[in-house]
Design goal:
eight-stranded parallel beta sheet, TIM Barrel, 13 strands, 289 residues, alpha/beta
């Protein structure tokens, strides 16, 4: 292994360009990071694919339902999307489907995997909602997924390091386990050192109006909705924007998505990608000392 690979999750052309310019190994392309990431349009994909040279993996997710349970019609739509992206030379897919019992929906996943073949597929963070993670990962491997994206069933990968490490120990020779969720330049070294992961997933974003990078990955920044009477702005804090995105001269803006959750509109930062790649290189070097 000559490097630890970085996958950057993006939902815009500019973020894709910035990720590529920063040295990322691969991007996960989606739309609506404010909803946790949905299937991108074919138009967005074609422009991104034409403008960057690194592999583009596409999210296949028809709605922002955090249960990751889909109807037969939605599964058919996901299959159709897969076929269309295959016809446009996609490098990989990212999806995951669960049952109401919080197990892997084997039959639905198999339909999509068959449609995607031979393109490699990542099982995304739906895994973080399964009831039995070790049993679920065995199923994921048997189905033929090549990669698992997980925060270790915690709110962030940093807090889920313990489970990620155990998964690495038990399954590292059978599937690539990729930590993701709240990874930034501030905690990357710790996560890679504790888990021995060989890939990681992040957005490398910065909040507009701030010099600090966003501690977020495949899901957008999400915080509990604040009651309206407490939604006040101050010179030292973010402004709550109920009317859609706008620029602010006094700090970052929080917008509200369709689920009533707040998020900050952001773009992947080239310098942050470079910094995270340097951190990963340093960690790899330490592993061989």
């Amino acid at each position: 292994m000559d490097e630890i690979k970085m996958e950057v999750c993006v939902d815009s052309i500019q973020s894709a360009l910035n990720a590529s310019a920063g040295g990322a190994n691969r991007i996960e392309l989606c739309s609506a990071l404010s909803e946790g990431g949905l299937t991108p349009s074919i138009g967005l994909y074609r422009i991104v694919k034409n403008k960057i040279k690194i592999p583009v993996h596409v999210m296949i997710r028809p709605s922002g339902d955090d249960r990751f349970i889909y109807s037969d019609d939605e599964i058919e739509a996901m299959k159709t999307d897969i076929i269309i992206f295959k016809e446009n030379y996609v490098d990989g897919f990212v999806f995951g489907i669960l049952t109401p019992q919080k197990t892997i929906n084997v039959s639905a996943c198999k339909i999509l995997l068959d449609a995607a073949a031979p393109i490699p597929v990542t099982f995304h963070r739906a895994f973080d909602f399964v009831a039995e993670p070790f049993e679920a990962l065995e199923v994921i491997i048997k189905l033929g997924f090549k990669r698992l994206l997980t925060s270790g069933q915690a709110d962030t990968a940093e807090n889920g390091c313990c489970l990620i490490k155990k998964l690495m120990i038990n399954f590292k020779n059978q599937i690539t386990i990729m930590p993701g969720g709240g990874i930034s330049e501030h905690n990357l070294q710790k996560i890679l050192a504790e888990t021995n992961a060989v890939e990681f997933h992040g957005t490398a974003k910065k909040i507009p109006g701030s010099r600090y990078s966003q501690r977020s990955t495949d899901n957008s920044t999400r915080i509990k909705l604040i009651p309206a009477k407490t939604c006040i702005s101050s010179a030292s804090g973010p402004k709550i924007n109920l009317d859609g995105p706008k620029l602010s001269s006094s700090g970052p803006i929080l917008n509200i998505n369709s689920s009533g959750k707040m998020y900050s509109p952001t773009t992947t930062d080239t310098d942050t990608v470079k910094q995270m790649m340097r951190i990963a290189a340093d960690v790899l070097q330490q592993r061989f000392l």
